[in-house]
Design brief:
Structural class: alpha+beta
Radius of gyration: 23 Å
Number of helices: 3
Largest sheet: 7 strands, antiparallel
Shape: globular
Helix content: 25-40%
Number of strands: 7
Strand content: 25-35%
Order of helices and strands: HEEEEEHHEE
């Protein structure tokens, strides 16, 4: 076979061909993995809702998207309303996102009908490992600054700013961002039934009672 001459045209042609092949491979891999990744994300969210609502058996009765403008910035919240097997309302799990030290900090917070915090979990964060990442445990019931059982009607704040929640050691920014996400989730939860502006909302009832 005749050796391909090392001309500019030939080199560009080879590079284009390689890019097309690699692009096709990446598109194929993305197509193959898209389904499983989506299923894993849905399962993680369903498990998270059970965890923050402190109930292994519940039904998600609605998934509402709520957009709120706070300090001239628009935030998007997802309100997952839940009920028990008998249809009694248990409250809601709220997805709330704010800006942390390293990037977006996305929290899922569970509230009972009285607005008390049942539990929480971090869905997404880019905080410093060993420092800001401690938010996953720091504010839990058995953590060093538990917020479980608190009602954010009086906004939660770190002790350095007159609140009663101890900030994560050396991670005040992350702590403040976390509490902001929780406070905003509470405000949306309390307003959802009255005057919150809801965008695309009630979906078909989905079951979350299976283990």
């Amino acid at each position: 076979m005749k050796k391909l001459e090392s001309t500019l045209v030939n080199m560009v042609g080879v590079l284009v061909a390689v890019c097309l092949v690699m692009g096709g491979i990446l598109a194929f891999v993305n197509h193959v993995t898209e389904g499983p990744i989506s299923q894993q994300a849905e399962k993680a969210l369903a498990d998270g809702i059970k965890a923050v609502m402190m109930s292994p058996q519940l039904t998600v009765t609605a998934n509402d998207t709520v957009r709120e403008t706070i300090d001239n910035k628009e935030y998007t919240f997802i309100v997952h309303k839940v009920a028990d097997a008998a249809g009694k309302e248990l409250g809601a799990a709220i997805e709330s996102t704010t800006l942390g030290f390293g990037g977006d900090l996305k929290v899922l917070v569970g509230f009972n009908p009285d607005g008390e915090i049942l539990g929480y979990t971090l869905l997404e964060h880019a905080e410093t490992p060993g420092l800001g990442a401690k938010a996953d445990k720091w504010f839990q019931k058995d953590g060093k600054a538990s917020i479980i059982g608190k009602n954010p009607e009086q906004p939660l704040a770190v002790s350095k700013e007159g609140g009663d929640v101890d900030a994560i050691t050396a991670s005040t920014i992350t702590s403040k961002a976390f509490l902001k996400a929780v406070n905003q989730a509470y405000n949306v939860y309390k307003k959802k039934g009255t005057d919150a502006t809801s965008g695309a909302t009630k979906k078909a009832t989905t079951k979350a009672e299976q283990p």
